[in-house]
Design brief:
single chain, 404 residues, alpha/beta, TIM Barrel, Cellulase family glycosylhydrolase, GH
Length: 404
């Protein structure tokens, strides 16, 4: 699960209560899950460029230790960044001190030191998986953000490499990666690219949210909706140089009302079944552990009910579904068969071709609805027998074959 604290949401770092954290983690561990992804708020941990608060770092380590006591591994996102429609940026990057998040030498040096410090503090913990550079930090670089720090693809790549290197310096050999929202796959001209997502870091992270036009177009129980996460997993492999690169479904959830609350468990089961049918899946981290308390104001309505548990730590039907699936998988090897049929993305296709409503997206969904288990390749790789064989692909279809 992505851990959302029950008391104060991520503002809990202001009034950190380890007993409350332990109770939250007890409710997560009771479902039989094996890891949590946690989110320090960047402005609270590094309120000044040269001040990384020791007490905040100690609290993060205490959370990790509490998770270990409950058999839970911990993955940590660094630059928060953006969470549930709110931005959390330190004052030394905004207004009177406005400097580019991705290009200013002082800002990037401060970010490096912050990531290196968090990783270093956790490096000795056996249950520490690794760092994610930040949560969907790419949204700060482009529309529709109201005040983006615009950069080029080359600048995005250099920034990612520097941040990943800082994580590695702090905790050598851990599972360090970066994560973007789906503009990286779907938005034409977006500076963070599919190649960066699929080649930099220890794994490819995908965030699957069907409020992006998928559920609006295909409905809550359409194949494209229930297999959106699987689609992103497979789409990401088209840009990977390593045919066996792991893919982490790092965020996925059931957003109401596009997925009605009474259908959340069914959506959860279908989404996980499809994702688990993808070879090379490293893991799944559901968004999120607990509902946002109605005592907190101004969240988008869908954010309040995404938890698998209520804000009172009561199990919801979707949470029961996740627990059943986790229990069925526990203790046995899960190795889905290869996907031998691939859909080729036409050379020169814009990223929007892969977005909901785009020809590649819709052709993939048609194949999935027919019971085909489609993989994805780029046209430039479709004629390379060695690359296809490395993934077990024996048949390549084109969009016009499917949609004609």
């Amino acid at each position: 699960m992505n851990y959302t604290p029950t008391r104060g949401w991520f503002h809990h770092w202001l009034d950190f209560d380890l007993d409350e954290v332990r109770a939250d983690l007890d409710s997560v561990a009771a479902l039989g899950l094996d890891h949590v992804r946690v989110f320090p708020l960047w402005p609270l941990f590094q309120p000044n460029r040269t001040l990384i608060r020791p007490r905040a770092v100690e609290q993060l380590v205490a959370l990790a230790d509490a998770a270990a006591e409950r058999g839970l591994d911990v993955a940590v996102d660094g630059l928060q960044g953006h969470l549930s429609s709110f931005d959390f940026l330190p004052a030394w990057t905004r207004t009177w001190h406005r400097r580019g998040l991705f290009t200013d030498p002082d800002v990037t040096a401060g970010q490096e030191e912050y990531l290196r410090t968090l990783a270093g503090a956790l490096s000795g913990r056996p249950n520490f998986l690794g760092m994610t550079v930040g949560n969907e930090v790419n949204q700060f670089s482009d529309d529709p953000h109201p005040d983006p720090d615009r950069i080029t693809a080359a600048q995005a790549g250099r920034w990612l490499e520097r941040m990943l290197a800082a994580c590695e310096e702090g905790a050598p050999g851990r599972f360090h990666l970066h994560a973007e929202y789906d503009a990286v796959w779907y938005r034409d001209g977006h500076p963070f690219t599919p190649a960066q997502a699929a080649r930099l870091g220890a794994a490819t992270a995908v965030h699957s949210w069907v409020f992006n036009g998928t559920a609006q177009r295909h409905g809550p129980t359409g194949t494209a909706t229930e297999q959106h996460a699987a689609y992103l997993i497979e789409l990401s492999k088209a840009w990977a140089e390593d045919p066996h690169r792991p893919v982490w479904l790092q965020e996925v959830g059931a957003p109401a009302p596009l997925v009605p609350p009474e259908g959340a468990a069914e959506f959860t089961e279908a989404t996980l079944a499809a994702a688990l049918d993808c070879p090379g899946l490293w893991g799944v981290t559901w968004w999120c552990s607990h509902d946002v308390s109605r005592e907190l104001a101004d969240f988008p309505e869908l954010e309040y009910g995404l938890g698998l548990l209520t804000a009172g730590r009561r199990l919801k039907p979707a949470g029961a579904a996740v627990a059943r699936i986790a229990g069925a998988l526990r203790g046995r090897e899960h190795r889905p068969p290869v996907r031998s049929t691939a859909l080729a993305l036409d050379a020169g296709s814009p990223r929007s071709a892969c977005a909901p409503g785009g020809p590649f997206f819709e052709a993939w969904a048609v194949l999935a609805a027919r019971g085909v288990r489609p993989a994805a390749v780029r046209e430039e790789d479709a004629g390379d027998p060695a690359r296809l064989a490395a993934r077990g692909i024996t048949e390549v279809l084109r969009v016009h074959d499917v949609l004609a």
